[in-house]
Structures are given as structure tokens and as C-alpha cells.
Design goal:
130 residues; alpha+beta; Arc Repressor Mutant, subunit A; three-stranded antiparallel β-sheet; 6 helices; flat
Length: 130
């Protein structure tokens, strides 16, 4: 990265980064991490709740993403010794620093969707009681 005309790298957690975006994307890059973080930004959620919010993600991929975000200190996993086992996910204080970034990304996507796409309401399927 260039700062005041001089080239620098950042050495962090055993990695070498050549630009600030590289650092950011190491934490939130990929298709699913930002989506998971988006749903956790305002509340604590269980695995099943997250899966309902992101129906396109497989359970395996959601599990992988949650583990990676936990390993990076962005989310915390709270396990309650109950039967059945209760596990909740939430943003850490460090993770909460990403909220303005997530909101900016969402705003950009919303604007692009409004300008380039077509908004279509999703109708909930009614349950038949035959």
C-alpha cells in the first residue's frame, strides 16, 4: 500500500498484506460472510434462524462460514448446556466495528438493485389443510 508516497506492507497474524482492501476481504470476503454478518448485525441468532434467513446456503457452508468468522474474532459462539443443546451466534465488539461497512455495502447494492433490477414481492405459500 502507498502511504504518503512510500510503499508499505502490513504483517499481521502470519500474513503479509499489500493493501488495506486485502486485509478487509480476508475477514469478510466470499459470497456468504457478509450475508451472515448482515443478519447478525442487530441481534443474536441460532443456526436454524440464520439458515432460514439465507435459504440458498447449505448447512455445511453456513457452518464453515460461522467457524471462520469465529476464528477471526468477528462473531462469538455461545453454547448453553441444555437438552437439546442451544447455540447462539452474535457479533463481538470487534465484529460490531464492521456494521458501518456492511450498511454501506448494503446501501450500494440496494441502489444498484433499484436502478438496474426489478423489485418483486415474495408471496408466502399458504399451508393447505386438506
Amino acid at each position: 500500500m502507498i502511504i504518503k508516497g512510500k510503499e508499505y506492507v502490513v504483517k499481521m497474524h502470519g500474513n503479509i498484506y499489500h493493501c488495506a482492501m486485502d486485509i478487509t476481504m480476508d475477514y469478510i470476503g466470499g459470497k456468504w460472510k457478509t450475508v451472515v454478518l448482515w443478519y447478525l448485525r442487530n441481534k443474536t441468532m441460532r443456526f436454524g434462524e440464520l439458515k432460514k434467513q439465507i435459504p440458498e446456503i447449505t448447512e455445511k457452508m453456513l457452518s464453515i462460514q460461522l467457524k471462520a468468522l469465529e476464528d477471526d474474532g468477528v462473531i462469538k459462539r455461545q453454547v448453553y448446556a441444555e437438552v437439546p443443546l442451544k447455540v447462539e451466534y452474535s457479533l463481538t465488539e470487534f465484529g460490531k466495528t464492521l456494521i458501518p461497512v456492511l450498511e454501506a455495502i448494503a446501501k450500494w447494492g440496494r441502489t444498484l438493485g433499484e436502478n438496474e433490477g426489478k423489485l418483486k414481492e415474495v408471496k408466502k405459500k399458504e399451508i393447505s389443510h386438506a
